[in-house]
Amino acid sequence: MLSDRKSDMSEPHIRMNDLNVWYGSYHILRHITADIPAQGITAIIGPSGCGKTTLLKSINRLLDEMEGTRVQGQIWLDGMNIYDNGVDVTEVRTRVGFLAPKPSPLPMSIYDNVAYGPRIHQHDHNSRGSKNQDLDRIVELNLRAAGLWEEVKDRLRSSASQLSTGQQQRLCLARALAVKPDVLLCDEPTSALDPIAAQKIEAQLRELKKERTIVVVTHMLRQARRMADHVIFLWMGELVEAGPAMQMFAKPRDGRTQAYLDGDIG
Amino acid sequence: MKWSKVEEKIFVAIMICSTVVVLSSLALILGTVIWRGLPALNLAMLIQTPKGGYYLGKEGGILNAILGSLFLAGGATALALAISLPIALYLHFYAERSWHGEVVRLALDVLWGIPSIVYGAFAFTLMLWLGLRASLLGGIIALSLLELPIMTRGMDEAINMVHPLLKEASYSLGATRLETALKIVVRQSIPGLLTAVLLAFGRGIGDAASVLFTAGFTDHLPTSLFEPAASLPLAIFFQLSTPFPAVQDRAYASALVLTGIVLTLSLISRRLAGRLTEHVIR
Amino acid sequence: MAPSTPTEFIEKWLAIPKRLSRQTLDRLAKKWMGFQTVAVGMLVPLIALALLLRAQPILTVRPLGELLFGTTWHPIKQAFGFYPFIMGTLWVTITSMIIAVPPSLMVAIYLAEYAPQRVRALIKPLIDLLAGIPSVVYGVWGVLTVVPLIRNYVAPTIDRWLSFVPLFQSDNPTGYSVLAGGVVLAVMVFPIIIAVAEEVIHAVPRDLREASLAMGATRWQTMKYVTLRKAVAGVIAAIGLGFSRAFGETMAVMMVVGNVPKVPSSILDSAYPLTALIANNYGEMMSVPLYDAALLGAALFLMVVVLIFNIASRLTLVRLVQHS
What are phi and psi of C63, to 5 degrees? Predict the structure, then answer.
């Protein structure tokens, strides 16, 4: 099935194949098989506790960091199973960025927050490759990409904790972008923000989807409707339905999806 | 391999080595005490008091010190318990989420850090003012000061573990705070309270510097609160200070006895903590 | 109706609480418990005050500078210079911190970040056990193991290879030395530093660590650049608590440092810490004027130093806990 992946240009960017996750003895994700197409925004929706965040965190192996978690199955990223033995987890995470629900600025300046990723990786690749001017350029580029540059360009050296929550979240976005991920995972990226700050994040994500694959977990249906090109609907740890957003929202195939969209469940 | 991975591997190796060093120091201490103490240990030592010339290597044992230590630490623990439990309950029931509760907790933490020799000096000063000589009572006072912060903080934490809903349930049935404290919360946190008591007892029985001038030392069994009392730590220290190998061997045996008591206590408290949970609601 | 039998008498007294209203009992209990709490809360200043009163006689006739920096200790001749003892304590304490801090922090990081649950559950009780061993047993271990080791192996080796370094030059052949005290104290403070440091590292919010890991940082990079940065105040507090514990330790130290009242100039020299000075001389000083005041002054000094380190550390920890 996957042997012809190199020849097929319309191959999905991420392919999950019979993915199972347990927390201890609790089987939280069951037999998930789904594709996430390249570019565009894929929204993972479903009632709370259905495993949305778990699914998201499985894509860059952040689940590894939680003790007592067990993962079975495969996730193919550009033709590489990220759960293969011998896969470099830090490499996977460099290619798959993550934006947490609550902004988590690192305890350092705005500049250092964005430069954190490039600095971490600079030893490993062409050593000392990134000069200071390069870093300056990277920081500016990514702060612009996150729509934050104009607001902070005069105080790059001040502590990131002084920014407003909305600004902090865009800083986290810039920070995640600074390592040039192909995929960006966003876990309810606007849930801690006020509506205006949320709007700004949504706008940036819509802009960013042109060059990247973006996966967004959201419990807000309206947000999914506004942003998503593709939708994955989870229900109690199982994948009920997945497909293009237009079709899912207009004519869901499964009764549970219909009920969820109508607000009868969840 | 990437440098960051190599760096991590190096540091994890250092961490594991450090852990091994720390754990092997424990093994080394226990091993040394057992290896040197066990051959010198015999029943006569445990059931006799020092006879004439004991510290020159003649007949006798350390029963005076064993009993003295048990009396000292027992009395101190009882005294500390009478003071600790009300404080722990007060912190929880009458000074909840108030700044003075936090100040008392801070004071207790600071008391915990005060060196035992300072407690000894302070207790000696108290005794001077009360007209007491070095005696069992003096030692008990000094040790209870030492045990007080350990026990109170332990109890405080044990009581903190009780689910707040349990308290609310008791209040909503019309119980006063005192009734809730004594009938519900104390019973609910008994394993934790007991652990705190045993921890304090263990600390008390092992301390030497605070009883050095408050309890004195004697070759007789303790008979009165106002007579000096021997203690195991000091017996170890004095026997080790003699130039006679035979007496020094007894010091090692005594150290083994003391270590045995302390370790047994800590094992018992772990066991009991699991046992006395019949009525505990989780 | 007067009680006629002892039983009735006891019953009458036992009945009193029942006659008091439950609310009154509650209020009485509050008063009594509150009194005890305040009394214990006042214990720290009380101890300091008592020691100050007892040390007063010498503090009024000798300037503080002379006491702290005087180098002669000769009670019979009324010379009370603490300097050699203060230096003895400092040498031993600092040596112990140099030995104890790096491995303790490494173990704390290991337990907080790397060790699987099973390993943690195995190691932590063992480290607690280390904290429960009486100090006199540490002293016995020092005499039996550490001192001979230094006398027979460490000192000769150092003498052979490193004797050009002043810090290692010594003609003390006994093994009873600053280094021996430092090693014994280091093992004694391991559990303190490890427990507190592990707690503060563990208290760093998960989000922060995840943010760093999610960018492809290794756990160690995350620890180095993010977690430790956030926990640095708490880690320093942990070291401060260890320091004050080592500073005030008496029994174990005095059994292995040799107790020679001279300022050490090498870690292989003997030392005479303040605590040992008090412990060795208290009780036999009553006949010499000012002697007991001097010793209680030493205890006061000890307490003040320990208090400063302790309060600073505890306040830092309390603030950290409130923030997280």
Answer: -65, 145
